[in-house]
């Protein structure tokens, strides 16, 4: 599956950077210098108590791939305010994107212990599902019990994702259908449902799901990638090539799509 920054973590982090500590009194300016990190450091020297500037610096480190620096700065803030669930969520995001699943889980559990926000539960349930941890089902049930109107779609998605990862696609499909009934534009549910059909060798059914997804969101790169995989299984080489090319059109750095395209083009 495509490796990328995970959706739930990314959205949660963006919300935090936009909304957290919005009551800072000092004016915040957009960083336009050639080196935004150094510019932010200079601004922090001028306004050392500005939480927003510090969080902007964490984001700048993250954008540049400097996860160690971002985590060090986040830890400094947690030492000052260990009961801040937002900071623990930021830490979880950084660990997750840096490939440290275990510490991402630990950080999210800390955030939830402080403030069991549904977004944190969804993130933790998803990562549990992707690591084949049965706790994913428990979190999904908790979401259905405590916040059904808001989080039912995510709860069903987590269950479907879990069963896909433990190689029980037949069990995954009904949960993904329930998710899509509540939110027909839930792209990740389309992807997982298509993967379930793919793993059941029902490639035409998977294509029906994927075509629906890319019709709703025509730049859905992962949809085109899985279409390519299905077309390959059906020996429809031309359609497979076109699908991989479409995936790369919308994400030129999609490694799996590049590899698949090169492989099929080099076949004699």
Describe the structure.
It is a single chain. Residues 3-32 have low confidence and may be disordered. With 268 residues, the protein is mostly helical. It folds into three domains: 1-115, Tetratricopeptide repeat domain (Serine Threonine Protein Phosphatase 5, Tetratricopeptide repeat); 126-200, Serine Threonine Protein Phosphatase 5, Tetratricopeptide repeat (Alpha Horseshoe), CATH 1.25.40; 203-268, Alpha Horseshoe (Serine Threonine Protein Phosphatase 5, Tetratricopeptide repeat). The chain starts with 6 loop residues before the first helix and ends with a helix. Helix 1 packs across helix 5, helix 7 packs antiparallel against helix 8 (135-146) and helix 14 runs antiparallel to helix 15 (255-265). The relative contact order is 0.07. The protein is built from 15 helices and no strands. 75% of the residues lie in helices and 0% in strands. The chain has helices at residues 7-19, 36-46, 51-63, 67-80, 85-97, 101-114, 118-130, 135-146, 148-165, 169-182, 187-199, 203-216, 221-233, 237-250, 255-265. The radius of gyration is 21 Å and the shape is globular.
